[in-house]
Amino acid sequence: MQLTYQRQDLTTQITYGQPLTKSIGEVLPPARHVIILTNQRYYDQFFEKVQRAFSHNNIDWYICRNQLYCNHLEELTEFLQYMSRFSRTNEYLFIAFGNEGVIQLTGFLQQTSLFAAKYWVIATSLRSFFCALSEDCTICKEPYNELLHQKNLPEHLFLDQSIVQKQVDGKLVDLQLLIKTGLVSDYSFLQGLFKSFPTKKQLQRTSFIAFVEKAVQLHQQHAPIIASYGTIFEKAFYLTENGHLLSAHMKQFLGLLLQLFWNLELNNSTFQIKNFMLWLKKLGYPLELPRALLVGEYLEQVLSLQEEDHMRVLSDIGKIGNTQEADEKTVINAIERYQKIISEI
């Protein structure tokens, strides 16, 4: 299947539901020198599969760190040093085949380097797929400290189920992204997820592919807002003592939930938050904050971070409202309510 995705004046051709070699063979320019940016884990898993898809091209691989935020200044510098051995008179195809950091890094590089290069993405997961649909490509010093920014979308974006479905340990993280899409932009989409994935067993058995087209439509309308929801609460974990006890994806997930709880402090939504949290627990999400986390310090970091970047408020679940500055009382109430519900379920 094919979809055309557009954000402002940027367009992406999405291909999914067919083998990678077939999808790429239909559009691949044979004379292009292919540079594939990836993480070590995906290189180890899929080297032969991806190599076959470009069997008629000159191919080189650049291996990024496995960390989620590998789109940092040091990685950018190292890639530019790596590219110094290649001629600028050739035409290149930069392909992101990795996690979200690889997508961000590749999109930024194609816009700013002096090489004549196109930019494509082969998704390794749903989260990398939807990351590619957000036109904001950033380079950071730390996950909470963005230094450089460019707007870019890949010319082509490929989703091969045989690659995505092998990331069994990442299904909760992929579902997390779909849940956020529904929470922010479409309540009926969220209800569809609830009905399709009522248990952890059902989650492992059922493909996400039926939700791709609708999620793409929602991102076409609201991609930057969906991507940014929860990020202030997420980044505050990086600045709080013992925040390292949470993985990068757990920081993202808890950031999303805590912004949602803060959001519910501001309006009179009828959303059944306790039932929602019970569903998340049944699916296997770890919901508790680390006991060693200094909640007071975390609160201070949230308030500090949002002074320059106010947070988006949902007027109701699935309905985007305005931005608003958080105050100490509402954030405290949100954290306390969150901890109370976690203790009850």
From TrEMBL:
<protein>
    <recommendedName>
        <fullName>3-dehydroquinate synthase domain-containing protein</fullName>
    </recommendedName>
</protein>
